[in-house]
Amino acid sequence: MSRDSLHRIAVLVGHNVLLRRRDPAHLVSYLVMPMVLMLVFKSMLGQPAQVVTGLLVMFSVLSMADVASAVLTERVWHTWDRIRATRARVPELIIGKTLPVFAILAVQQVVLLVYGILAVGMRPTGPLWPLGLAVAAWCFALLGVGTALAAVVRSHGELSTLCNIGALSVSALGGALVPYALMPSWAQTIAPASPGYWATTMLQAAVRGDVSATVGPAAVLIGLGAAAGAFAWRRLGKGWGRSAVL
Question: From CA 44, how far away is CA 26, in angstroms rounded?
Fold first, then answer.
C-alpha cells in the first residue's frame, strides 16, 4: 500500500472519528442497557458466562447499525458520489470508514466482558488471548455484514428495522438468550445457520479457555465477514450504492 493510499485512509479515519465523537449516543445506550440486563438475567439463569456472552452478542448485533451508518449517511446526504469522484478507491473508502467503527465495537465488547467479570461473576479460565481472538473475529464479521447492509438499504429507517429484527433473530436462534440445550428441537436444528450461534459458542469456549472450540467458530465468522465485505466492495465499486438510488 502506497504512502498516498495510507494518507487518504488516515484522512477518512480522522473524519469518521470526528463524526462518531459528535454522536456517542448509540455507544452509551448499547453499554448501559446490557449492563442492566446482565444483572437481571443473572438472577434468572444463574449462569454468568451465558448471561454475559449472550447479551454481548445481542447488543453488538444492534451496534451493527453504526457500521452501516458510516456509509449510509454519505448516501443519505448525497455526498457519496462526491467522495467516489476523488482519488480514493473503494477499498480505501471502506477501510477509512469502518476502522473507527471496528474500534467502537471492540471497546463495547471489552467493556462488557470486564463488567461481566467484575459485576456479574463470570470467571474466565485459561489464557486470555482466546477472548481477544473471539472479540476480533466477531467484530470483523459484524463489520463485513454491516458494510454489506449499507450498500443495500435505502434509508436509516430500513436499516434500523433490519438490525432490530436481526438482533432478536440472531440472538434467539443462536442460543444467546437461553442456553442451547433448553431451546426447542427445531431451533437447535437451524441454530448453526445463525451467526449468533457461532459467536455465542466461540465466546463461551473462550471464557472456558478451550482454544480448539474457539478457533473453529472464529474461522466461520471471519469467513462470513470476508464474504460480506467482498459483496459490499463489489456492489459499491459498481456504483450500486450511489446516492441516486435513494
Answer: 27
pLDDT tens, N- to C-terminus, the chain (246 residues): 667 777 667 776 776 677 667 666 667 888 888 999 998 888 777 788 889 998 999 888 887 777 777 677 766 666 666 666 666 676 777 777 778 888 888 999 999 999 999 999 999 988 889 999 999 999 999 988 988 888 788 777 888 888 888 878 888 887 777 888 888 888 889 989 889 999 999 999 999 999 999 999 999 999 999 999 888 888 876 655 444 444
Return the closest-CA partner of residue 156 out of 57, 69, 62, 227: 69
- Written as nine digits, the cell of 237 is 465499486
d(CA 187, CA 180): 9
pTM confidence score:
0.84
Q: How many CB atoms lie within 10 A of CB 162?
A: 16
Three cell numbers at 183?
431451546
